[in-house]
Specification:
184 residues; alpha/beta; 5-stranded mixed β-sheet; 38% helix; 22% strand
């Protein structure tokens, strides 16, 4: 009887320990409005166009924000009800905000649970490329119904110029879409 109680107790402890291990969440991304949060217009458009191409080539319906707001327009407009209705009519219910988190590989996903309007009001402190850097970290925030549903960090190393940043971005983000963001 004692052996049975001990066996059951060990089984319960083992089950509790293994169930606490968190599994990586898959986003199940099917559509997206891609928003680059960069101060420089050319950096913003580079991120948006490349991310949109990557998403579309992997079966995710995506459009860049540059097709929605006027050149030089404020990103906060994207949080308005009229834009939300326009996006809904186009079959878009997910907003993807992309920003440069920094030039270090040690960054983690921020735990801040901003709503869409607050997140759109923030800007990036960093450019797409800076002299004498060897790595860059991109933060992706996914919103549905103006609520943050998922955050991810993509770290690119071995960069020496702006073109290598874009090349690494395409390689890493392309893999991430398939592994974590899109349901197979």
């Amino acid at each position: 009887m004692e052996k049975l109680i001990l066996t059951v107790l060990v089984a319960l402890i083992a089950t509790g320990t293994f169930s606490q291990k968190k599994e990586k969440l898959k986003l199940d991304l099917t559509n997206a409005l891609v928003i680059g949060q960069m101060d420089k217009t050319e950096d913003r458009y580079s991120l948006e166009i490349n991310a949109t191409e990557l998403l579309n080539s992997r079966g995710v319906k995506a459009i860049p924000s540059l097709n929605v707001i006027k050149l030089g327009g404020e990103a906060l407009v994207l949080a308005s009800d009229s834009i939300a209705e326009l996006m809904k009519a186009k079959g878009i219910d997910t907003y993807v905000l992309i920003s440069v988190r920094g030039f270090d590989r040690k960054f983690k996903v921020s735990g801040i649970k901003d709503n869409l309007e607050t997140a759109l009001g923030l800007s990036s402190l960093f450019d797409l490329y800076r002299e004498d850097i060897v790595s860059i970290s991109f933060e992706f925030k996914f919103f549905r119904g103006s609520e943050l549903i998922y955050s991810d960090m993509v770290k690119c190393g071995n960069i020496g110029d702006r073109e290598s940043v874009i090349k690494r971005f395409r390689k890493k983000v392309g893999k991430r879409i398939v592994k974590r963001w899109k349901k197979k």
